[in-house]
Amino acid sequence: MSEANTSKKYDTIIIGSGAGGLAAAICLSRAGQKVLVLEQHDVPGGWCHSFYLNGHRFTPGVHYVGLCGEGEATSDLYRGLGIANDLVFFRMNPDAYEHVHMGEHRFDFPADPEKLASRLSERFPKEEKRIKKYLGLIRKVSEELYSLPYFKGFWQKLTIPYKTRHFGKYGLFSLRRVINWHIKDPLLKNILNIQCGDHGVQPRKAAFILHAALMFHYFYGGYYPMGGGGALIKAMTNAIKKHDGEISTSNGVQRILLEGIDQKKAVGVELENGEQLFANQIISNADVGITYNDLIGKEHLSEKLKQKLEKTIYSCTSLMLFLTVDMDVRQAGLDSGNIWMMPDKDQDAYYDAAMNSDLTSDAPFEGMFISCTTLKDPVSFDGKHHTLEVITFINYKAFEKYKDEDAQRSPEYLAFKAHLTQKMLKGLEKAVPNISEHIVHKELGTPITNDYYINTTEGNVYGTEKSLKHIGPFAFKAKSEIENLYLCGASILSHGVAGASHSGVATAAQILGCHPDVLKEPQDDQHLRIYEAEDDSNYPDWMLKKVAVKKARLVSKAKTTV
Known about the structure:
Blueprint: E1 10-15, H1 19-30, E2 35-38, E3 51-53, E4 56-58, H2 73-81, E5 88-91, E6 98-102, E7 105-109, H3 113-123, H4 128-147, H5 154-158, H6 160-163, H7 165-170, H8 175-182, H9 186-192, H10 208-217, E8 223-225, H11 228-242, E9 246-248, E10 253-259, E11 265-271, E12 276-284, H12 288-297, H13 303-311, E13 317-325, E14 338-342, H14 347-355, E15 368-372, H15 373-376, E16 386-394, H16 411-431, E17 439-445, H17 447-454, E18 485-487, H18 496-512, H19 516-519, E19 529-532, H20 541-561
Parallel strand pairs: 1-2, 1-12, 2-9, 5-19, 6-14, 12-18
Antiparallel strand pairs: 3-4, 5-8, 6-7, 10-11, 11-12, 13-16, 13-17, 14-15, 15-16
Helix pairs in contact: 1-11, 1-18, 3-4, 4-10
């Protein structure tokens, strides 16, 4: 990565190289701006970056992406950014891109809303009419939500109340209230709400509109990028460099430079090494708490913004177990679909218990998200070793006492981490029996890990909490009260890989004075390549060769070590 050039002024400096920051950088550099992206970690990508443990790749924040099919929103986004040709996605098991393990109950989400309705109705025949009505509402609300930016001119805006009547009717209600109005069976509610894990908020607090949009995002299945999140980041950084943008890693920002009588105008940044760089605009892709409290400083904020920050609740944090195993995971029941493992109890009660559980006990974690990367990205499989990423949500309080430790962790922290690893493995054994006997390597990421590598307030994984108080009109704005300072990312427009990217485009559009759709207009010569994770019959020769080479390397390595 290029080093920051201190000899010139930039049009825009972007703090943080997550998907949002990089998407903004592509749009601005393509428009002719001199753009510099600064990243405190030694690789770009934020949650989307990939890393290696003993030669095996892991990505902490990319587990599946929706709407990647031809003509769908994410595909069009990547075509519009000019990176689609550099990406390959695998479609996860279309018959079961999500496996629900609810206590002893099992249910599979298919990549087809009609098939989902039929499958649910077959399982819950007494709820058939209510199921179809509820899933229809999910679609209507989501389509109305996505249509809002397209109402232009007086007469079109006059029709908004009618054309978005479902969105308006349910916009201020929680998921729990709306689903209780439509669905009666407790198990069915839990199954329909299983994807609450994708925003980390229990039904009682989650906004129905948000959950509806999330379900709609995956209505037609889940996709995973070949090469993991790192491949997505590489495509984005290459696009930035193509337009002469700069990306500088291992360059943390210490503060945003302000000037003016009231110190309300952002003019540059000061790096942790003391260097000062200047720009016409600053975009922060960092956490909103870090942006305002640390990089700007509370003394420069209005009372209204300070009060908002004091009331801000951040999303939950996580434990993430990275595993390499030498077992046949397919024979153990895994495929390219995710597994959501939850106890058969009310989800509000589960989330409340999880946030207040005794982490010092030996009891296994009850709720987990289980993902096998080498089945979602078959090219990454070497013929013997599979990689898994296993996640559970926890409260940050249990790690607060370790937050000021340096990279040399204390024996107490390491012992606690080892204990939690065993709790994770005990829980995982319920979904994949005997997996502990086949572990080649294991590593646990904690809230402290999140804070160290991603630099998030209290190790949060989704930015601000995705409750009614922190989304839509109540979310933090892209244009800040500080002149020339903009924000993008999970706390601004939406979270997730696609949501953060759309946020970056929207912020760039504000700076450029245009509509985001202008920047996302699909380019005719750009097309996303999609292959089936579960069927290699249509893989091109170059892909089959990559698979063969990876397996041959393992055989060769085994021979040399004998």
